[in-house]
Amino acid sequence: MTIFWVPPSDEEITKILKDSKNVAIVGASDNKERPVYGVSEWLLDHSHYNLFFVNPRINTLFGHPVYRSLAEVPEWIDIVDVFRNIADMPVVLDEAIAIRAKTMWMQLGLSDQVTANRGVKNGLNVVQNRCLKVDYDLLLR
């Protein structure tokens, strides 16, 4: 049987957001001009999440360590929030599967049906082309 990704409903996204504790921000940046910086800062200040930043090019962000890969994060990850180029999605998905994350979340502007289908086939919740900050603010606050 072939499994295809279907966009999650707001109710399903609300459940993902509520039930999650640890979020890895893949593609974290210390550049204040990048959307990932603002989203990360907002989530630190306004969400219930423990954030773990992933980027092999920087060492710290907002006083927190930055990990080179998802495999280096010392906690189990519920949501892998991805701020990378669409071409990087298959590799990030491989890492998310390897660490047994619950959800792969592709930020606004990121959508890849092949990756989404493979994520669902491997048991992950997959969210595409949505902003974790916006959904958290809209659905949980």
Name some characteristics of this structure.
141 residues; alpha/beta; Rossmann fold; seven-stranded mixed β-sheet; 5 helices
Mean pLDDT: 96
How many angstroms does the end-to-end distance come to?
A: 39 Å
CATH level 1 class label: Alpha Beta
Number of domains: 1
Structural class by secondary-structure content: alpha/beta
Output the radius of gyration: 14 Å
Overall outline: globular
In spatial order, strands of the major sheet run 3-4-2-1-5-6-7
Write the CATH architecture name: 3-Layer(aba) Sandwich
Largest sheet: 7 strands, mixed
Tell me the helix content: 25-40%
Explain what you see.
It is a single chain. By secondary structure, the protein is an alpha/beta fold. Strand 5 (79-82), helix 3 (89-98) and strand 6 (103-106) form a beta-alpha-beta unit. It contains five helices and seven strands.
Please give the structural blueprint.
Elements: H1 10-19, E1 22-26, H2 35-46, E2 50-54, E3 60-61, E4 64-67, E5 79-82, H3 89-98, E6 103-106, H4 113-121, E7 125-127, H5 132-140
Parallel strand pairs: 1-2, 1-5, 2-4, 5-6, 6-7
Antiparallel strand pairs: 3-4
Summarize the structure.
35% of the residues lie in helices and 19% in strands. The protein has helices spanning 10-19, 35-46, 89-98, 113-121, 132-140, and strands spanning 22-26, 50-54, 60-61, 64-67, 79-82, 103-106, 125-127.
